[in-house]
Amino acid sequence: MKKILAGLFLTASLVFASAQTISFDKTTFDYGNVKAGADGHRFFVVKNTGDKPLIISKVQASCGCTTPEWSQDPIMPGKTAQIKVGYNTTIVGPFTKIIEVYSNDPANSRSVINIKGTVEGGAEQAPVKAEAMEVKAVAAPVAAEAAVKAGRSKARRAAKKAS
């Protein structure tokens, strides 16, 4: 009975040892301080440390300001590939974004890589923050409506004084 259990354990350990395994050169890429409008593309190196082909099926960013690109080709054992990540550097301010990498690695089918940094606005170039654009879009109609109401109130007061 002990021999059977030992044989099953050895077989199971060989099955897990012979698989595709994903690893990264780094899991966080720090852009540091970059100028607004600068090239926002960076590369993560992915390595297959297993002994079967690794397939990256999907790479998904946490928002639309980050765009990943990758090859659908299998990564052979011991070989590397790159995931290109682009960040929209027209959005001024600090950022931290996650990118999810889905693969056929049985132990780690979902991996997470990160990018972070700060986009600095320049004096010659004044990009608008995304939040400021939203506030202006909401504030403009509200301000116009307030001005119309204020105009009506003044007109009513003037009419009352005249009568």
Describe this structure in words.
With about 160 residues, this protein is an alpha+beta fold. Helices cover about 30% and strands about 35% of the residues. It has two helices and eight strands; from the N terminus they run H-E-E-E-E-E-E-E-E-H. It has helices at about 1-15, 130-160, and strands spanning about 20-25, 30-35, 40-50, 55-60, 65-70, 80-85, 95-105, 110-120. A four-stranded antiparallel beta sheet has the order 1-3-6-5, with no helix packed on it. The chain has a four-stranded mixed beta sheet with strand order 2-8-7-4, with no helix packed on it. It is elongated.
Label this structure with key terms:
4-stranded mixed sheet, alpha+beta, 163 residues, 8 strands, 4-stranded antiparallel sheet
Question: What share of the residues does DSSP label as strand, in percent?
Answer: 35-45%
Structural class: alpha+beta
Could you tell me the number of beta strands? Answer: 8
Q: Report the uncertain regions.
A: 123-128, 130-144
Calculate the mean pLDDT score and round it.
79
Neighbour order of strands in the largest sheet: 1-3-6-5
Write down the Rg.
Answer: 28 Å
SSE succession: HEEEEEEEEH
- Gross morphology is elongated
Number of helices: 2
Into which percent range does the helicity of residues fall? 25-40%
Give the N-to-C terminal Cα separation.
110 Å
Task: Report the major sheet.
Answer: 4 strands, antiparallel
Topology:
Layout: H1 2-17, E1 22-24, E2 28-35, E3 41-48, E4 56-61, E5 66-69, E6 80-87, E7 93-103, E8 110-120, H2 130-162
Parallel strand pairs: 2-8
Antiparallel strand pairs: 1-3, 3-6, 4-7, 5-6, 7-8
